[in-house]
Amino acid sequence: MAILTASHLKKYYGKDESLVKALDDVNVSIEEGQFAAVIGTSGSGKSTLLNMLGGLDVPTSGSVQIEGNKLEEMSEEQLTVFRRKRIGFIFQNYNLIPYLTAYENIVLPVRLDGKKEDKKFLKEIVNFLELDGKLSNYPSHLSGGQQQRVAIARALITKPALLLCDEPTGNLDSRTSDKVIDLLKMTSEKFHQTIVMITHNPEIAQKADRRIRIEDGRIQSDETVYETDSRVTA
Ligand SMILES: Nc1ncnc2c1ncn2[C@@H]1O[C@H](COP(=O)(O)OP(=O)(O)OP(=O)(O)O)[C@@H](O)[C@H]1O
């Protein structure tokens, strides 16, 4: 079942001779549980697409539907709440709040909703992401890989349906990148999340179930890797 559908998505910047068609009629559906990589050259429209899919920016025209909800029909306030509850964002620069500890950063989205975190779930995520013993550290006292794992924990704490990641390992060395991606893949499998991830890194794209290539604001190729079905049918 598709968890996310974008139909005839366009995003144009400027006009006349300075018109940039950052997205030019993109149609894409992402299946529940899929790990989709978005690849393409610099300036091809990857971040624009991710921002539209996550309701961080408004398309010039077209529609984005997540779990049956049309983003363009939501008010700004409804969209903010929807994003916080159903979508986890992970960015290249981690976007952690420097004056909050790792723990406070992780639980922030739950607290913003006026709720208390599920302690058992928090423990499970922290343990899984190997952040035990780091929770009282401020971001400046964590390594890049640890900061990104805090950002992943923050994205997971609300149990979102969808994780949108923009170059999540762009600032990490290759060994740490590998580990972060493997953890992200494992956590999303464990907690049944769908991932859409922008990456420049061909090795990371290889780990995805699907590779969507964007060029000049259009989907140029879209390749899904199906696992071999080893069941014996009678
Ligand atoms: N706010 C904006 N105003 C005008 N043009 C913009 C704006 N944001 C993006 N663009 C243009 O839209 C196009 C797509 O940009 P986008 O950031 O989506 O590319 P990208 O594939 O993510 O690139 P990169 O890999 O370098 O991050 C580019 O030509 C860019 O210059």
Automatic annotation (TrEMBL):
Q: What is this protein called?
A: ABC transporter ATP-binding protein
> SMART domains, alphabetically?
AAA
User: One GO MF term, please?
Assistant: transmembrane transporter activity
Q: Which CDD domains match?
A: ABC_MJ0796_LolCDE_FtsE
One cellular component term (GO) for this entry is: membrane protein complex
What are the record keywords, sorted?
ATP-binding, Nucleotide-binding, Transport
The ABC transporter domain extends over 4-234
Q: Which family does it belong to?
A: Belongs to the ABC transporter superfamily.
Source species of the chain: Mediterraneibacter catenae
